[in-house]
């Protein structure tokens, strides 16, 4: 029986309990705040099923939290809302989460969707955490928005360094002409130039357009040594088909940002060798975590962003405990504190251990599956671990160790 469960039983019978252990310098946390309600705002079938693993990660995090005694001695609740891939569907999903009074909302899947919904989510009273958003344009956008996935600017430096080390002297970038896309485009262009790589084409694509001929023609006409895709899965699939099958680009001349890496239904061999970086756990940690996810849902095709989504749920639950509150604003204040924001916090790497420390009145530094989760004042993690992923001949994603 966990320390939190014992506390809950004492509160339930109306007793007052004070810890007297000599190694507990602070008052123990108060309980009886009501169950923590977590809502997920994630795609269930859109984007080729890329959101399936994220939904499973939320469920696994909730299961781990409840197996360890829950939050305030009560089982955390979870409600899933399908954001699909349109703003209209996301708006309906948000209202469903507001109706159940979700304290924490996990999502959205894409940065562009978060741009359109974050204010509505926080106006409902919730705090919002994403495990998949990368756009640097989201930095500081809302004081109740955090992401456990690193910003595009950290990834841009990784891509630029890799392209330069591979010996390429010229590059073209394909990205979206929207709030999320422009920041990544400009950040990557600057990183490439600083690495000695000339950007010869950078067409901005309308994210709502299905006509990709013009941007592809602009890239091909510039004859770059490497093309870098910053697009989302719905755009990336036809772009990859065109650039590889029609224009002859290969794994040596086509690089994918994390937003362009997803399960694709392309002809066998088209994807083979294509590669890109995804922030996430070290391979051995990922293998253990992914095996747990597969037990929940054996149909998962891609594990991208699953670990960071799991971490987002754990951070939110620990922040609620630290705040002694389920109010979104209170949780938001404590998110940085439980992730290393308090000097001298005790390092812990799972909910059970971290929560026991909080009960004892100690500060904690949760180090998640994805590593250090220290947040800056604008809700961004300040470091990241990246893995290089490559597509096998059959289209399966394989981490390159």
Question: How many helices does DSSP assign?
Answer: 13
- CATH architecture name of the largest domain: 3-Layer(aba) Sandwich
- Order the strands across the largest sheet as they lie in space: 2-1-3-4-5
Structural class: alpha/beta
Q: How many runs of DSSP E, i.e. beta strands?
A: 15
Q: What is the general shape?
A: globular
Give helix and strand order, one letter per element, not per position.
Answer: HEHHEHEHEEHEHEEHEHEEHHHEHEEE
Major sheet characteristics: 5 strands, parallel
Give your account of this protein's structure.
- It is a single chain.
- With 401 residues, the protein is an alpha/beta fold.
- The protein folds into 2 domains: 3-151 and 285-366, Rossmann fold; 152-278 and 386-400, Response regulator (Rossmann fold, 3-Layer(aba) Sandwich), CATH 3.40.50.2300.
- Helices cover 39% and strands 16% of the residues.
- The chain is built from 13 helices and 15 strands.
- The protein has helices spanning 3-12, 46-49, 52-67, 87-99, 111-123, 152-165, 179-194, 213-222, 233-246, 283-296, 306-323, 328-334, 351-359; strands at 37-42, 77-82, 104-107, 127-130, 145-147, 170-176, 198-201, 204-205, 226-229, 254-256, 275-279, 346-348, 364-366, 386-391, 397-400.
- The protein has a 5-stranded parallel β-sheet with strand order 2-1-3-4-5, with helices on both faces. Strands 6, 7, 8, 9 and 10 form a 5-stranded parallel β-sheet that branches. A 3-stranded antiparallel β-sheet has the order 11-14-15, with helices on one face.
């Amino acid at each position: 029986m966990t320390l939190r469960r014992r506390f809950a039983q004492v509160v339930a019978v109306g007793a007052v309990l004070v810890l007297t252990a000599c190694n507990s310098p602070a008052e123990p946390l108060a309980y009886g705040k009501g169950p923590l309600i977590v809502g997920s705002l994630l795609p269930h079938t859109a984007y080729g099923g890329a959101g399936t693993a994220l939904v499973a990660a939320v469920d696994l995090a909730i299961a781990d939290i409840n197996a360890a005694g829950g939050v305030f001695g009560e089982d955390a609740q979870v409600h899933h809302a399908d954001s699909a891939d349109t703003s209209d569907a996301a708006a309906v999903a948000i209202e469903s989460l507001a109706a159940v009074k979700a304290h924490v909302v996990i999502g959205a899947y894409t940065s562009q969707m978060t741009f359109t919904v974050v204010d509505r989510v926080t106006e409902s009273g919730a705090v919002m955490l994403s495990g998949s958003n990368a756009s640097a344009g989201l930095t500081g956008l809302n004081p109740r928005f955090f992401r456990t996935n690193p910003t595009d600017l950290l990834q841009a430096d990784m891509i630029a360094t890799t392209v330069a080390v591979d010996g390429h002297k010229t590059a073209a970038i394909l990205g979206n002409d929207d709030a999320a896309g422009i920041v990544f485009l400009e950040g990557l262009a600057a990183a490439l130039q600083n690495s000695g790589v000339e950007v010869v084409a950078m067409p901005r694509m309308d994210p709502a357009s299905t006509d990709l001929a013009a941007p592809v023609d602009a890239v091909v006409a510039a004859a770059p040594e490497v093309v870098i895709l910053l697009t989302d899965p719905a755009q990336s699939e036809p772009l990859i088909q065109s650039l590889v099958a029609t224009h002859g680009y290969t794994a040596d001349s086509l690089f994918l940002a994390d937003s362009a890496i997803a399960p694709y239904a392309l002809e066998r061999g088209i994807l083979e060798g294509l590669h890109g970086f995804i922030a996430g756990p070290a391979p051995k940690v990922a293998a253990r975590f992914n095996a747990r996810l597969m037990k929940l849902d054996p149909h998962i095709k891609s594990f991208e962003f699953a670990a960071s989504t799991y971490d987002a749920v754990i951070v939110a639950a620990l922040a609620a405990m630290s705040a002694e509150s389920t109010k979104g604003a209170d949780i938001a204040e404590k998110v940085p504190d439980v992730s290393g924001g308090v000097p001298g916090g005790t390092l812990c790497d799972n909910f059970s251990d971290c929560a026991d420390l909080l009960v004892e009145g100690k500060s904690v530094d949760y180090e998640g599956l994805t590593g250090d989760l220290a947040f800056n004042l604008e809700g961004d993690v300040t470091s990241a671990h990246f893995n290089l992923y490559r597509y096998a001949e059959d289209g399966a994603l394989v981490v390159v160790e």
